[in-house]
Amino acid sequence: MLLQSSKEIEVRFNELDPLDVVWHGNFIKYFEDGREDFGRKHGISYTDLKKEGIMAPIVSVKCDYKRFVKYGEKLLVETTFIDNPAAKIILQYKIMQKETREIVAEGSTIQVFTDHKGELLLVPPTFAIEWKRKWGLIV
Question: Which of 79, 88, 97, 113 sits at 20 to 30 Å (Cα–Cα) from 61?
Fold first, then answer.
């Protein structure tokens, strides 16, 4: 089963650099928009994790830029969950121009699970296992 979400974004003026294109660092913010949208839609938001006494800090970000993006463009951030047996969340992102579906950037993030004190969890927490079971990723 493929778990995905899609979030629309319109490029704002304050996201541009002096060359009048989206500053490269803002694509990481767009990934965050996609990650938050995915979490809300699939019951694994930061709030859900916090209620369980779990944190999920990001330990890796990868972003490949395909073309410049300009003010006012409408984009879609497509976020896909990549299943894995480890105590982490891997998400892949495609940022596309809304009308044409042309990919303007793509990448991934890796988050690890920690307890509320920040101690790394070496096995998936019960919450993550139950979440996967709910979505049919494990039986």
Answer: 97
Q: What is the pTM of this model?
A: 0.95
Rounded distance, CA 24 to CA 15, Å?
9
Can you tell me the distance from the alpha carbon of 10 to that of 112, in angstroms, rounded to the nearest whole number?
30
Measured CA to CA, the distance from residue 98 to residue 38 in angstroms comes to 18
Catalytic site residue from 17, 20, 64, 83: 17
pLDDT, one tens digit per residue, over 51-68 is 999 999 999 999 999 999
Residues 6+ apart with CB under 8 A from 10: 72, 73, 74, 75
Would you state the pLDDT for residue 17? 97
Answer for the pair 105, 45: CB distance below 8 angstroms, yes or no: no
Give the single-character DSSP code of 131. Answer: H
What's the pLDDT score for residue 1?
Answer: 74
Please confirm, yes or no, whether 17 is among the known catalytic residues.
Answer: yes
